[in-house]
């Protein structure tokens, strides 16, 4: 396995989040720091999860101003999978960090590569997508300013009539996994 590049002084103090760099088949090729992966457009894993209640409603979160897709609704769980971390470990960690819930019932939908330029970086993400089934009320962290429940019918209608209320990554997840 290749050694990661070292981050320069200040950047190294900002984070030490090491992630696995993967190929298009999701096989680990090396490890590096998240910021380097974004600077260089290296493909790496991200866990994404939709929160769905017993009526089939999706809980989406509105992104804070300092996040990608600011002021837009996005999937409530989304975060980098750390080097050596399993999908389930990342799912549980991110759901606790972003929603204040510990998933008990969930299922894996699939995976897809999502790439874009956003807030000065090249995100080249290998999305691994789950559904979490829960009635719990989210406790939001600093990344989100609000949440809203939507039915599938409402999401499909709003994606057509008011697409800008949803973030680009959510559009990708919805069309890829829910055929919206």
State the CATH class: Alpha Beta
Shape: globular
Number of domains: 1
CATH topology: Nucleoside Triphosphate Pyrophosphohydrolase
Strand proportion: 35-45%
Helical residue percent band: 25-40%
Head-to-tail CA distance between termini: 39 Å
Count of β-strands: 9
Report the order of strands and helices: HEEHEEEEHEEEHH
Characterise the protein shown here.
- With 180 residues, this protein is α+β, with helices and mostly antiparallel strands.
- The chain has a single domain (16-177), classed as Nucleoside Triphosphate Pyrophosphohydrolase (Alpha-Beta Complex).
- It contains five helices and nine strands, in the order αββαββββαβββαα.
- Strands 3, 4, 5, 6, 7, 8 and 9 form a seven-stranded mixed sheet that branches. A two-stranded antiparallel ribbon has the order 1-2.
- A hairpin with a 2-residue loop joins β7 and β8 (121-133).
- The chain is globular and about 40 Å long.
- The chain starts with 8 loop residues before the first helix and ends with a helix.
């Amino acid at each position: 396995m290749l050694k990661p590049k070292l981050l320069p002084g200040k950047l190294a103090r900002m984070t030490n989040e090491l992630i696995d760099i993967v190929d298009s088949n999701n096989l680990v090729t090396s490890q590096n720091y998240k910021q380097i992966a974004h600077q260089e457009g290296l493909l790496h894993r991200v866990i994404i999860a939709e929160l769905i209640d017993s009526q089939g409603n999706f809980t989406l979160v509105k992104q804070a101003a300092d996040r990608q897709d600011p002021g837009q609704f996005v999937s409530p769980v989304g975060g980098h999978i750390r080097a050596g971390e399993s999908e389930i470990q990342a799912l549980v960690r991110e759901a606790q960090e972003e929603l204040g819930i510990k998933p008990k019932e969930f299922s894996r939908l699939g995976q897809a590569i999502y790439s874009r330029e956003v807030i000065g970086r090249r995100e080249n993400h290998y999305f691994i997508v789950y559904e979490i089934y829960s009635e719990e009320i989210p406790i939001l962290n600093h990344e989100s300013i609000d949440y809203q429940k939507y039915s599938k019918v409402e999401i499909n209608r709003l994606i057509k009539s008011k697409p800008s209320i949803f973030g680009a990554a959510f559009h990708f997840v919805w069309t890829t996994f829910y055929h919206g």
